[in-house]
Structure formats: C-alpha cells, structure tokens
Amino acid sequence: MRKASTTMTSQSPQLDLSQLAVDRSQPKKAAVKVKRSWLTKYVLPLSILIGFLSLFGWSARDSFLPAQSVTITPVVVSRSEVKQEGMPLFQAAGWIEPRPTPVIASALTSGVIQDLLVIEGQRVEQGEPIALLIDADAKLELADAQAQHAMQQAEVQRAEGNLIAAKTNLANPVNLQALLAESEAKLSEVQRELDNLPYAIEASRTRQELAAENVRRKQGAGGAITGRVLREAEAELATASTGVNQLTAREPTLKTQLKSLAEKRNALAVRLQLLTEEKRALADSKASLAVASARADQTRLAVETAKLRLERMTVRAPIEGCVLSIESRPGQRLSGINPHSEQGSSAVVSLYDPAMLQVRVDVRLEDVPQVQIGQPTQIETAAVGTPLAGEVISVTTFADIQKNTLQVKVAVNNPPDVIKPEMLGKVTFLAPPSLAAEDEQGESPLRMFIPQSLVISGEQSTQVWIADLAAGTAQLRTVDIARGTTDGGLVEVVSGLAPTGKLIVAGRESIVQGTRIRVTGEDSTLSGGNNSLNSN
C-alpha cells in the first residue's frame, strides 16, 4: 500500500498536501459573542404580533361584533320624456268662483230687516251700509240704559259725600268731645253737691234745734200762747226734721250718681281715644263708594252695549267688493250672534273681491299626477277673447266618483272686470319648468323612484334609510320628494339619492344612524314595475 501511494504521489504534478494539515500547536481562540439590541429582540416581534392580531380581528369582525340583519331594495331608475316648459299637457273644464271663498256680510245683532240698500252685482266700499234693521227697540234700550247710568252716578256722588263726612268726623270727633265735656260737667255738679251736703245737713239740724226750742218755749208759756201759734211752731219743727232726714238720705244717692258719672266720663274718654265708630263709618263709606262706582261702571257698559246694538242695526260691508248674492229679504228676522236664538240665519248678502278669482276645475284622475302646485295654466272663457294666465294653487280632496275627477283650484291672474263668478271656463295645464335636462348624447334624463312606504316624512324634511354596503352601516339620508305617486305606490326622488343606492326594507325599526348591518337578502316586491312609472 505504501508503495502504491508513493507511486500515485509521484505521478501527481507537485501536489502539496501540507496545506490540508491542521496546526494544533497554536491555542484555540474564544468565540466572539454579539450583543443583540432590545429593539430587535422585543419591540419588532411584538409589533409584528399586534399587526397580525389586528388584521385577524378586522377580517373576523363580522363574527365578533353584532350586526342588524336587514333586507334591501334597489332604487327604481327610469328614463322619461321631458316636455318643454309651457307645452300643453291636458285640458279640463271648470267654473269661476271667488278666491278663496265668498265673504258673508252678517247681522251682528238680532232684528228684522227694514230696508236692503244693495242689489246683486253692485260694487260696495268697506263699511258701506248694505241693510237697515228696525231700531225702535234699540233706541228705547239706549234711553233706559242712559237713565240708569245717571241714577247710579247720583249714588256715586252721595257715597262720595258720606265718605267726606266720615273722614271729617274721624279727623275732628266734635260729637264725642261734646258728650265728654257734658259728662264732666255733670260729674263736677254732683261732686260739688256731695261736697256741700255736710254743710246743708248741719244747717238743717240747726234749724231743727231752733224749731224744737221754739216749741218748748211756747209749750212752757201755757195759756199765754194761742193754740195756732203752737201748732205753727210744731209744724216748723216737723219741716226742719224732714229736711234733716232728706239730706241725710241723699248722701248715698249722690255717691252712686257720682260713681256712675265718673264711669261714663271714662268710657267717653276711651271712645274718643279709639274712635271705633268713626273708623267703622269711614270704612263703610269707602265700601259704599266702591259699590256705587262699580254699579256706575256696569250702567256705563250697559249704555255702551245699547249704543253698539243701535249701531249694529245698520249692517255694513266687511270688505270692498261686489255683491255676489242676496241672502235675506226685507221683513225677515235675523238671529245675529245670539247663540240662544231660534232663528239660525244671520247672513244678509255675500260679497267677493273681483281681483281675487279662481277656477274650480274637474281634472280626470289619470291627469292628476301631472298637476303641481304653482303650475302655469291658460284659462279660456267666452267672455274674454284671449286666454287668461293662471296658476295652480290647490289640489283638493274632493273627488267625484261618477265623473272620475278630482277638484283642482286654479287662480286667475289679474282677472278683468268682465269675469264673474259661476262663469264656465276651460283650463289648459302647461308643462312646468323641469328640474332635469337631457345629457350630451340627447338621451332622456334619469328619474329615480322609491317605494312610498319607505319614506319617513317629518315636519321639516323627508328621509329614507340607506344601506352603505362599503362600510356595512345604516345611513339616514335626507331626500327631496316630488309631489304625486305612481300606480305602483312609488314616489319620485328629485335629489339626495344616487341611482345605485340601496334602501333598507326590513329591520328599520331597531336601527339608528351608523348601526352595523348585515344584508340577508334583496326585496324586489316593493320596487314596482317600469310600466307603473309616470312618463310625463
């Protein structure tokens, strides 16, 4: 083997196998440790993980977040012919009448018509007399009311005089002062008499003693004194004794009288201080004056009422215009505004303003969708050679089943004087200005229709629920709706809606603005058909 390898080696062209040898004599170097940054170690993996979870959550949001199940229906789009403004659409017959209604001139009080001052067709000014009622009773009522008012004014003057006297008595109570002074005088007189009573008793006793001594002397004289003289002396003694007894018995009476007069004097002094009666009299006088003044106001109102009734005996025109018809006759009784009257009529004449006329037109039901408020018209009548300009002002709810028509009100612009109510007229309805225009290729404009049942009508705006399929939410959109509906129950949307819009049909009851929705199907039953769309 050695020999063979040597032979092979010698045959190779200078092959140096020493390069393959490993030199183990050198010491082994230590491995270099690389320190990794915290940004690449923690933040970068965590960001990748969060991004992955966010992407997963967004893609699976329908599974985690609740969504309202709804059904949708597309907007019905149609191309229709747009007629040029002013082009005749259709014609209908009607009758001219006052606009908006005739004006009734009524009697404002009950009475019997004496004279009618106007005739049919006569022109009257506002406030001009048109009828006279019998006013004899009204004049008597006015005279009676004026007399009652004069009497009540006298009562007011009497009450004012009593009030002045009451105020004077309260400010200067001379009556009480006089009574108090009289009571004090009587009290002083009794007091003086009581004070002088001891002296009077003493003087009376002295006279009694003198009379007794005179009787004793005369009795001692015996026959020298006549019996008559003795009897006179005894009578004088008896009189003196009686006087003493009277004066002695008067003292308790004087004391009682003195006490009574003192109490009366004190009561009058308190009454003068309080002045209760005078204050009450003043209050009564004020109340009497208030009552009399109120009654005077009542009688004054009665006078004004009687004057007003007398004035209303002349029925006047409430407006400036022409007499349309006579509603009452002379001798007819009118009820006025009395709700308890048995007669229910109070109209005298009916008036109208010649400058305010309209045509009551019977429009065929198939032509009603072409009628719009403000639509121009032309009115033809036999009384005028040229057509009159008009304008649609109202589409009523009065339909005639037999004639299959609906009443439409058309105003007559600047009617001439020859036009009168109840004249026949033929109205030509003209095409109104169109909001749509043909595109560059000359195609008819698009018209959008939606089911009327999906329209939410508010006081200031009209709205519908739209399904935003891109965002998966419900949106409440404000739209402008044209007047009238088609046979299929569709209404035309003028603005606020795209032709590709999707309307929410089922599930609208429990959604609000921005509610997430899930479309479960498409409802085509409410879309109607193209054959039901109005092509005018």
UniProtKB/TrEMBL annotation:
Taxonomic path: Bacteria, Pseudomonadati, Planctomycetota, Planctomycetia, Pirellulales
A GO-annotated cellular component: efflux pump complex
UniProt KW keywords: Coiled coil, Membrane, Transmembrane, Transmembrane helix
Signal peptide residue numbers: none
Keyword Membrane: yes
Gene3D superfamilies in the cross-refs: 2.40.30.170, 2.40.420.20, 2.40.50.100
UniProt GO MF annotations: efflux transmembrane transporter activity
Keyword Nucleotidyltransferase: no
Residues passing through the membrane, by range: 42-60
Cross-referenced Pfam families: Beta-barrel_RND_2 (PF25954)
Domain CusB-like beta-barrel, first and last residues per copy: 361-430
Protein name (database record): Multidrug resistance protein MdtN
